[in-house]
Description:
The protein has helices at residues 2-5, 31-46, 58-65, 75-98, 112-115, 117-132, 155-166, 200-209, 213-216, 218-231, 246-251; strands at residues 12-17, 50-55, 104-109, 136-141, 170-175, 196-197, 235-240, 258-260. By secondary structure, the protein is an alpha/beta fold. Helix 3 (58-65) packs across helix 4, helix 7 runs parallel beside helix 10 (218-231) and helix 8 packs antiparallel against helix 10 (218-231). Strands 3-4-2-1-5-7-8-6 form an 8-stranded mixed β-sheet, sandwiched between helices. Residues 211-217 and 266-281 have low confidence and may be disordered. The protein has a single domain, classed as 3-Layer(aba) Sandwich (Carbamate kinase), CATH 3.40.1160.10. Helix 2 links the parallel strand 1 (12-17) and strand 2. It is globular, with a radius of gyration of 18 Å.
Amino acid sequence: MEYRKLLRNKEKIVIKIGTSSLTCENGEINYEKFEKLANTLSHLQLNGKKVMLVTSGAIAVGSRKMGRNQRPDKLPEKQAMAAIGQAELIKIYEEYFSKNNFTVAQVLLTKDVVTHPIRRQNAKNTLNTLLNMRVIPIINENDTVSTDEIEFGDNDTLSAYVAVISEADLLIILSDIDGLYDGDPRVDVNAKVISRVNSIDVVEKFARSTQSEFARGGMITKIAAAKLCNKAGIDMIIALGSNPDIIFDILEGKDVGTLFVASTDEKSEIQQPLIYRDKLG
């Protein structure tokens, strides 16, 4: 708990929010969630924090705008929906952040940005320049052009790369689950949220050994993100994203979600391109 109190001193923060935290159960866009998130991040900015937002939702928003109730299966259609939805996403964020007198900037990345040293440096320079201008970067993968070779694969991984590139102090992943559990909460009534993880290797083995979809899916990518952050000396938290105000609780040091404590080893790996090559190995 004492370590969590140090989180209030974190200045440069990456926040990742998933599609499920921005949409209603029926798939409709939850504008109230967008507005609340914008208000929360604006409050952080007003209090001296430097905030970057990694947002999902482009395909879902694009599909809804085109009157489709289901996510497309074919890659060209996914990329088309992402192109439509990304424009709409930025429009929504711009509307709500402007009410708090903040400007947003769209940043679309592919994985070759972080594997190529010059592009990585350019991305870092752009992000930090935007932050110094008190502009809020709205970051997503460039799904329209992403292929297997240059895609991040998911925004958990993308958010970790953004944290590493920008040399952030903290990554907060807002999810549809309130942390990493010591068991599958769907079948184990005694499963509890793990408050703090000091060893990524231990939880990685746990996630790989369980046969449940719960562990094989979204949590695997979050542990991969934590591993990247850990190597770079960046703390990471997984927390429930249904109410963005939980960010305030996190930065006040309250015991919410799962905290992955950064490695205390020398951060030399942050400059080595090879660490970007793989996720879990």
